[in-house]
Design goal:
Layout lengths: L12 H13 L12 E5 L2 E4 L4 E4 L2 H4 L8 H11 L13 H13 L6 E6 L2 H16 L3 E5 L8 H6 L3 H4 L10 E4 L13 H18 L6 E6 L2 E2 L5 E2 L2 H14 L2 E5 L23 E4 L10 E6 H4 L15 H14 L2 H24 L3 E7 L2 E9 L4 E2 L1 H13 L2 E2 L1 E3 L5 E4 L7 H21 L2
Parallel strand pairs: 3-16, 5-6, 5-7, 7-10, 10-11
Antiparallel strand pairs: 1-2, 2-3, 4-12, 8-9, 11-12, 13-14, 14-15, 14-18, 17-18
Helix pairs in contact: 3-11, 4-11, 8-9, 12-14, 13-14
Amino acid sequence: MTAIRRVTEIPGPKSRAILERRASAVARGLGKSTDVVIARAEGALVHDVDGNTLVDLAGGIGMTAAGHCPPPVVAAIEAQAKQLLHPCALVATYEPYIALCELLNEVAPGTFAKKTLLANSGAEAVENAVKIARAYTKRAGVLCFEGGYHGRTLLTLTLTSKYGLFKQGFGPFAPEVYRIAAPEPYRRPAGMSEAAYVDGCIATLERALIAQIDPAALAAIIIEPVQGEAGFIPMPAKFLQRIRELCTQHGIVMIADEVQTGFGRTGTLFAVEHTGIEPDLITMAKALGAGMPISATTGRAEIMDAPHLGGVGGTYGGAPVACAAAIAAIEMIRQPAFLAHARAIGEVMRGELERMQQASKLIGDVRGLGPMMLIELVADRETKAPAAAHALAVIKRAVANGVVLIRAGLYSNCVRFMPPLTISEAQLREGLAVVGEAIRHVEEHGP
């Protein structure tokens, strides 16, 4: 039995009608990666308004780690909605907020006492982390990295890289933000070993603390353990370890942005677990709520307690229904069997994508961590010239044939794979077969 079912072209007539309404009613700046118009979804399958069924390999950009409409989460939402919708945590206390904070304090990396603050989006979690770090250190500077993506608010957009897509026309940006290159082993200088390259990146980091900002003026260093929008680039363990050492040495707050990598996405609950690093603060969102809008900043209790009373918070942060959903999602994802399945599908993805790489000169690199995988398409493997048009063509053809995909990468030349972690191996292989056919077609016929 196949999972993909096409009864019309994709998009079909009903989808096209809704897309026309979107064009008329919705702000033009809100992009969309596909022309899929979803009516309902479960697990790793989405059903469009024309009756087509597609395999989802995008996963809401990592949001649906627990799958679409996971029954325990749906049940928790329904039960909570019947009791209490939202009195606002700034007005009154309700148990779901406390229970979720307790759970996050338990599961977040670190053997120290922790506290948590809830909000609505990943960008808010990052904003809160920076504010808290500044309050704790009494310093202003923040160091971030090229390729990083941290959100679209003023401060987080300042931290975010990839100027043309995210930042064009939105300046001026926030002050006291410093940026240096992050390790990108695939594009290291020709003839240089990866070990020597990482050592050079560490030297650049150390130089920045002399040339760009003194450590005594630096409140925080923020980094994604696996850079997401830059193209699923795992940060080398040695590089993260040096950041941790420098932060400890100089009293700088280390912030791990796990908005995209958290809650099983890399095969462990958090990506930093692969390196043994314990950040001072960790930001979370996306998969945390299994589709509900919720985010969190968790970290050392003494740092989290630094802001003055009333200095943090927001109207909708930690709404009871979202908290109930998050608790149910975490309890699903933290189970050893769930994480073992996530790692297993990650191995299947890597194996299939590497096989595609052997068969196609378009694929310059296969990389990622666990079930967070990506292929980078290039016009030439020697020059590594980005093939952005080819990546878009592959996605369009795959979507037309029943697979939901999205791009990534600084040059928009990568295809990323973030399926719901509940996907079956059969569904995954079926979806990847469609992608493989799309790559072969684009390589033969062009974008």
